[in-house]
Amino acid sequence: MHRLAAAALAVCFAGLAHAQAPAPAPAADPAKLALARQLFTENGGAEAYRAQIGAMMSGMSQMMRSSLPAGNQKLTDALMKDMGEMELQMVPQMIDLSADVYADGLSEQELRDMLAWTKSPSGQSIRRKMPAITQQLMVRMGPMMQAMMPQVMQKTLDRACEEAKCTPEARKLVAEAMEKALKPRGS
């Protein structure tokens, strides 16, 4: 199963790496951008992002560790640690991009309403609970993700080969690599 986890990560990161960057958005309305930044500050700012990333990486690590044979858990921990550290370095840019997207996608009134809710007792309570909730979501989704991986990988192969106009030989090589990644260790 450790190959399944590795294959899942490879598919996720390959998709991210090949995603086309959108055209730069026009500059957001300064008032809306200020509200969006305030919203992120009220939601815990960089520390909240760091907590969410930590919880997500912890959940992914637990999910992957549970599918690995004994003795390979250290590799998973090392991978997840490095990935988490790289994501943590991007937090300031993630906040800036998020604020831009919120300012572009929401009206000034929606941002004001969201900010008011965020400052409410319920909003603050939910913010504090989100890292634990994110971690539990990752752990609970693991079995579903593992069960769906053969279908996901097949569809990915089909789309990628269609787009890249794979030769039958190239398609076969990729299919064999995916199949090998999906086989439980020792089979």
Keywords:
187 residues; mainly alpha
Structure description:
With 187 residues, the protein is mainly α. The chain has a domain at 2-9 and 28-143. The chain has eight helices and no strands. Helix 1 (2-18) packs across helix 8. The longest helix is centred in the C-terminal third of the chain and has 44 residues, at 121-164. The protein is extended and about 55 Å long.
Topology:
Elements: H1 2-18, H2 30-42, H3 45-67, H4 73-89, H5 91-105, H6 108-119, H7 121-164, H8 168-182
Biggest β-sheet strands, sense, barrel? none
> How many helix segments?
8
On the 0 to 100 scale, the average pLDDT is 77
Oligomeric state: single chain
- Along the chain, the helix and strand elements come as HHHHHHHH
Structural class: mainly alpha
User: Which spans have pLDDT < 50 for at least 5 consecutive residues?
Assistant: 1-19
What is the terminal-to-terminal distance? 11 Å
